[in-house]
Amino acid sequence: MHSRETLRRHARLVDNMATRIGVDLEAAALGGEISIDQISDSVLRCSGCPNPDHCESLMERSEALEKTPEYCRNSLLFAKLIPEANK
User: Which pTM was predicted?
Assistant: First the structure.
């Protein structure tokens, strides 16, 4: 089981990555595009990632991202949630 600190770190990474590629997770959840359980699962997938430090360094940059890094365990989920205008 992951520590609370680890889960918080990865929750931030998931939210920040989603934002960087143009996905608003809160709006997606409120709109029924994603469930709270799916968001929780995405945090757990992220917590198993071997590259969280690299991901954090990407988040420190100010520019938006066109897509997630190749290693992102949530790439498929995020790709489904990217608004059509951003694709």
Answer: 0.90
